[in-house]
């Protein structure tokens, strides 16, 4: 659905985007992560055919950004990080105005507007003036606007920016719903735990260069080359730690309070014999789990906070 090859945007000697090669398939929900000034918005504006690259190629739904920009605009919904709304319009009037711009006519126009309002849960605000909406409602209205023409691809730049926790949860649920409808979604955000929860793929960009693009699980695996376990037993923590440390599967053991933190040896992924070992020695397990690395940790590990 989205494919780029060596996509570059240069301003003199400054490269806002440098040799970006990326591929998203139909139905992907792709989280685009990077510090401010890393090239996220530049990428999205190029894919939306609002900005010409210096060199490189990009295809959206099989169409080149150079030769078929009009076709691409019919197939995508682009929501920038900051967008203007017409405060003196009612919500339904605002949507009908843009539906008319998409050449949706007659009874179908009102029907489409009502449907997208219901989708973003703003139906009860249809006759309210746009100026009366909260920040979260305005974001949902902006999302409704880009859904009017039923685009195949959604490009959303910081859709949850500035929202309160409840509004962020609502936007997150809406993105999940849109993905279930078969939409391909590219979304940038600084709220990393939420991206990990909704995205199946993420890309990490810094100084205009894509550092990594992969499934979320693959990103975690690359950041951590050894598995960590958290173990807790009922009594005899020190003895249990020494028993685990003697196993050839274990590289290091660290006891913190009542929890035994176990670092497995390199390339060890099957550790099923360790709980068996403890149980056979008479220990009752209170906790035995793999320590999860989160997207924030991966981001901090891979980036240095340097902008282009």
Please name the defining characteristics of this protein.
alpha/beta; 4-stranded antiparallel sheet; 35% helix; single chain; 14 strands; 11 helices; elongated; 308 residues; Alpha-Beta Plaits; Rossmann fold; 6-stranded mixed sheet
The name of the CATH superfamily of the largest domain reads P-loop containing nucleotide triphosphate hydrolases
What integer is the average pLDDT? 89
Specify the helix fraction band: 25-40%
How many strands appear in the DSSP assignment?
Answer: 14
Order of helices and strands: EEEHEEHEHHHEHEHEEHEHEEHEH
| End-to-end distance | 27 Å
Shape-level CATH architecture of the largest domain: 3-Layer(aba) Sandwich
Number of helices: 11
Flag low-confidence runs: none
Determine the strand fraction and express it as a percent band.
Answer: 25-35%
Q: Based on CA inertia axes, which overall geometry fits?
A: elongated
**Biggest sheet descriptor:** 6 strands, mixed
The Rg value, from CA coordinates, equals 24 Å
CATH topology of the largest domain: Rossmann fold
**Biggest sheet, spatial arrangement of strands:** 6-7-8-3-9-10
> How many domains would you count in the coordinates?
2
Structural class: alpha/beta
CATH class of the largest domain: Alpha Beta
Topology diagram in text:
Layout: E1 2-11, E2 14-24, E3 29-33, H1 40-47, E4 55-60, E5 63-64, H2 69-75, E6 76-79, H3 91-101, H4 106-119, H5 135-147, E7 153-157, H6 165-180, E8 184-188, H7 192-198, E9 201-206, E10 209-215, H8 216-223, E11 228-233, H9 237-245, E12 250-256, E13 259-264, H10 273-280, E14 285-290, H11 295-302
Parallel strand pairs: 3-8, 3-9, 6-7, 7-8
Antiparallel strand pairs: 1-2, 1-4, 4-5, 9-10, 11-13, 11-14, 12-13
């Amino acid at each position: 659905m989205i494919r780029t090859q060596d996509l570059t945007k240069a301003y003199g000697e400054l490269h806002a985007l440098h040799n970006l090669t990326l591929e998203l398939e139909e139905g992907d929900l792709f989280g685009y992560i990077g510090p401010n000034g890393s090239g996220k918005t530049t990428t999205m504006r190029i894919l939306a055919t609002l900005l010409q690259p210096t060199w490189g190629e990009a295809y959206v739904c099989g169409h080149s950004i150079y030769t078929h920009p009009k076709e691409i605009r019919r197939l995508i919904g682009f929501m920038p990080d900051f967008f203007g709304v017409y405060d003196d319009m009612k919500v339904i009037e605002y949507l009908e105005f843009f539906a008319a711009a998409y050449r949706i006519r007659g009874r179908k126009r009102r029907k489409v507007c009502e449907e997208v309002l219901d989708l973003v849960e703003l139906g009860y605000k249809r006759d309210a003036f746009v100026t009366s909406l909260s920040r979260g409602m305005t974001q949902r209205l902006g999302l409704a606007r880009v859904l009017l023409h039923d685009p195949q691809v959604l490009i959303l730049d910081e859709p949850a920016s500035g929202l309160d926790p409840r509004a962020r949860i609502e936007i997150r649920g809406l993105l999940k719903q849109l993905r279930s409808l078969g939409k391909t979604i590219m979304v940038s955000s600084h709220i990393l735990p939420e991206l990990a929860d909704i995205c199946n793929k993420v890309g990490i960009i810094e100084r205009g260069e894509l550092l990594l693009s992969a499934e979320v699980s693959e990103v975690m695996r690359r950041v951590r080359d050894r598995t960590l376990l958290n173990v807790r037993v009922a009594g005899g923590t020190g003895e249990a730690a020494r028993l685990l440390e003697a196993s050839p599967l274990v590289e290091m053991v660290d006891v913190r309070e009542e929890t035994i933190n176990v670092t497995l040896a390199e390339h060890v992924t099957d550790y099923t014999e360790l709980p068996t070992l403890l149980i056979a020695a008479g220990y009752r397990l209170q906790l035995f789990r793999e320590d999860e690395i989160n997207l924030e940790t991966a981001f901090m590990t891979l980036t240095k906070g340097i902008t282009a």
